[in-house]
Structure formats: structure tokens, C-alpha cells
Amino acid sequence: MMEDPTQVLFTELPVPLLSTAALLRHHHHTAPRYQPYHRLHQPQHFHNPIQELHSLQRPFEEEDQTEEYDQGKTHISCLYPEILAIIFSYLDVRDKGRVAQVCTAWRDAAYHKSVWRGVEAKLHLRRANPSLFASLVKRGIKRVQVLSLRKSLRDVIQGIPNLESLNLSGCYSVADVGISHAFVADAPSLCELNLSLCKQVTDNSLSRIAQYLKNLEVLELGGCCNVTNTGLVLIAWGLKKLKRLNLRSCWHVSDQGIGHLALGNQSLEYLGLQDCQRLSDEALKHATGLTSLKSINLSFCVSITDSGLKHLAKMTNLRELNLRSCDNISDTGMAYLAEGGSRISSLDVSFCDKIGDQALVHISQGLFNLRSLSLSACQISDEGLAKIANTLHDLETLNIGQCSRVTDKGLTTIAESLLRLKCIDLYGCTRITTVGLERIMKLPQLSVLNLGLWHVR
Q1: Strand 120-125 and strand 143-149: pairing?
Q2: What pTM did the predictor assign?
Q3: Which partner for 381 in 214, 360, 363, 405 could form a disulfide, CB atoms 3.0-4.6 Å apart?
Q4: Rounded CA gap, 167 and 172, in Å?
Q5: DSSP state letters, 411-444
Q6: 69-83, 126-140, 380-394: which has the minimum mean pLDDT?
């Protein structure tokens, strides 16, 4: 039987013709500059395979003579600038800057705004650099993190007029004077401001922010220990579009401040109050006025008790509740949440040493929407785990690290019932063995398993 000539082409080419370089030279000798795209849209340029073979049979001397001419035709710079920009957009920030130094064509493509979309520039502003901000604007960068600041903050605000996000976290030199000099007119495009650990910032800065940053949606004030209830009045008055507010370790904020905030803001979705030691159950009563609230962090708020959870259970939009290290939260508080019709999908009661198996009974009887449950260092056992395994079949994340009473029996129950589990933390669970681990590792969707401080028995 005669062989198909196309099969000969791909499997039995004579050695002298096996030259990829020659094939490229042959195509590019007659093709236009953007030949790959030209041929895709004009199928008539594809030749018969046998004709291709004959056309490649020419003296090597001729190939050498055209080598210099053809190299320019096959260079990556032949790609359209728009295609180069798409390629460069996948590079990390450092490499984006490097490709801009290769040649003029690459520089022009690398400065296309699509290459830098969503990039946050991280800057050390230690000395004057007049061309810096013009370069950022040219590339369309609208997100900036200042790593260190020795010059005026005003230069940043004026140099990037369309700034959308400004991160000053850890810039200890930022104070009320700098804020007042920087914000002297409306900045409608700025929607995110991070002042975390700027400990010199006070309510005076919040007055200026509330006046000129009307479109602010995210305000991070973690560690701003000089912010008081007065600052929350200003926020409620001026920042009507605020969706995320973090007041971590703002020790002067009290129940009254949360009341002021609730009266003036109906758009807030996240409220971070971790380590605000002056807050009590009264603050949670005021928080019910934040009708859009989806997530609240109360970790390390030691004055919050079970009674406060009665108020949170009434918040129909609340989905995430963090009570980590709230020493006065117990099994009774979980009963209030479950009986109150709470729809939370994420609950963290880690290091609440008054949480035990009875809490899991309450959770299993009322918090049916849970997808994530953190019980690290709680007083739970295999019996409690069996309760939630029987009802919370949609659970995806379970953290039971440092729960020393959990054994292989509890892991077996989990493996048999929580088939949608993706992540489990068993850090410090010293009573489990390879028997229980083998069961857990058979879960069909498990992707994260933490076994810190565990040893083979």
C-alpha cells in the first residue's frame, strides 16, 4: 500500500530539510511584517505540504545571505503594540518596569494603561522627584502605598489628581498638620484611605477627611489610638458612602461612639472593633442601627457578654461574626444566636474558654447557614463535633486546633458527614493518630490541612 505523502512529510523528512530556522526564513522572506495575523485571515496562503518541501531545497549559501535580513522580520517587536501590552500585563510590577527599558517599541507598549490596571505603586518618598508622579499618571496608576514619607503628603495628592486608593499604613510621621495641608479641596475619586498605625492622627484629621473625601468607601484607622467618639460623629456626618471602617485598638472609642455612627451611616458593611476595650453590650445594641452591616469583628473585646449577642442575632444582614478571645462569651451566647434566627455564615469563637460541647449543640440546632466555624482552643470533644457533623453538611472550613480532647473518633465522624469540607485546622491536636488522618484525607474536596505540633504515633 502506498504511503500517504503527508505522513512522509511529518515522519520521514530527510535530515538536510529538518531545519526549523530554514522554514521560518522561507515563510518570512515573502510575508508582510505582521505575517502571523495576515495568514490567519487569508487561508489561501497555506501551501500544499509537498510544495513546502520542494521550496525549502535551496543552497545553504542563499540562506546565509538572507539571514541578517530575515532576523529583523521574526523579532518579537513585530507584534502589534496592543498585543505586547496584553503580554506585559501578565508580568509582575518589577518586570513591567524592566521591559520598558528594552527598546522604544517595548517602552511605548509597557506604558499602555491596560498594562498597569489595578497595580498599586509602592513608593519611598524620601526626596523630591518631579518626574515620578507624571510617570505614574501616564501609566494610569491610581493606587499608591507610601512606604516611607519625608516630603509633603500634599505632593502625592496634587501629583496624582485621579488617585483612588492611598495607603499610609505605618507612616508614623503623618500627623494632623500633614493631613490638613494635603486635603484642601474635594477629592471625589479617592475611595480608599488607610491610616493604620498613624498614631499622631486625631479627630482633627477626621474633620478634614469628612469635609473633602465625601466618596470615601474604605477607611482604615487601626491603631489610631487618639481617635475618640468625636471622630465617629464626624465620620457619620461626612462619609455617607462609607462601607468599611476599621477602628482596631482605638481605645477611646466607647458605646456612645457606636451610637453616633449608627445614627448617621446606613451604608456600612464591615465594622472592625477588635481590641476596643471600652465597648460593652450597649455598643451592640446601638450597632443594630447599622442595617447594612454584614461583618463585625469584636475579637479581644473582653467586656462583651452573652447578652450582647441577643442584639446581633436580630441583624438580618449580618453574615460574619468574630468573637475571638472574648472571655465572657459562653454556651449561652451561642444559644441566643441560634434561637434569635441569626443567618451568619462565618463564626469565630476561638480561645473562648467557656465554649464547650453544649455550644455546639445550640449551633447545630439553629445556625444552619454556617460555612466557616473556628473553635480553636475551645473546650470541645468528639461528642460536640458529632452534633455539628449531623446538621451542618455545607460546612467548608473547620478550625479545631489546640482542642486537646478531640480524637480519631471525632475525625472519623467529620470525614463521614462533612463531605464539602475544604479546609481543616488540627494544629496542636495531640490525641489524633494516623488512623484519623487517613479518614480526613479521603474527603473529596479537602485542599488545606494544618497539622502543626502533631507527631506520628
Answers
A1: parallel
A2: 0.80
A3: 405
A4: 13
A5: HHHHHHH-TT--EEE-TT-TT--HHHHHHHTT-T
A6: 69-83
